[in-house]
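Reviewers of the previous submission asked for a worked example of the structure-prediction workflow described in the proposal, so we include one complete record here. The input consisted solely of the amino acid sequence. No template or homolog information was supplied to the procedure at any stage.
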Amino acid sequence: MAATQAGIALPHVIHDTYTVFWREIKRYRRSRSGLVIRMIQPVIWIIVIGHTFSGTQPLLESVGFEGKYIDFMAPGVIILTAIFTSIFGGVNTLWDRRYGFISKTLTSPISRSAIALGKMSAISLVATMQAGIILAIALLIGVDMELITVAPILGIVVFFSLGFSGISVSVAALAKSQETFWGLINFLGMPLFMLSPALFPLELLPDWLAAIASANPVTYAIILVRDLMAGNATAEVAVLAMGVIGAFVLVMVTVTTLVFMREASRPF
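From that input alone, the workflow returned the following structure tokens.
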């Protein structure tokens, strides 16, 4: 009986998730200016800073990286785009709580987990689209990579962004004010990016920072994307990186669903 009920419920959850997902996508379509503004920072990073630090080539060569600095930095900026698009995406949930959409939705038969998963999926897709634009810019300014690796890289970004969208939606469900939301998001976002090999190799970091970075899922996403772009990804690195990213995403999907089910209906 339980198995039958689960079989009946699953299509409803999928449909509910898709409904919320599509609503969020339509909302993003109406706020193109916000998406453009959020892309300014990564574009500046990859064009300006990528060339500014081109003189660090000897440091990269000392740890075995044979490409240009901009080749080293581009994967970090792609992941930076995914992080900040994902982690800022929860603000829509904050507005939904304030203006009563969440409360109205929770009175309907829709699954609460479907609301969380639909929002996370939409944020992840938008983050991937923006990361794809940064990837195209990287190609235009001369970053060396094989075009065949574009699809795997975007696949990694989709998966990775799902975890960070979970952080964003969780914070939006927990936050009691906009100030709390933005404070927590800014506190989490930049340190996770900086404590990674986005700008410089782990070998150049102090041992204690390198140890922290080795526990950061951002590190594994950047390393895997960088290896793919350089054409030297190995099965061992790919399995390890996807294992860490997969564990991160699984934890965040679970936590976000539980937090959203418990907190979303509480007063803003």
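The CA atoms of residues 221 and 241 lie 6 Å apart. We consider this example representative of the routine output the project will generate in years two and three.
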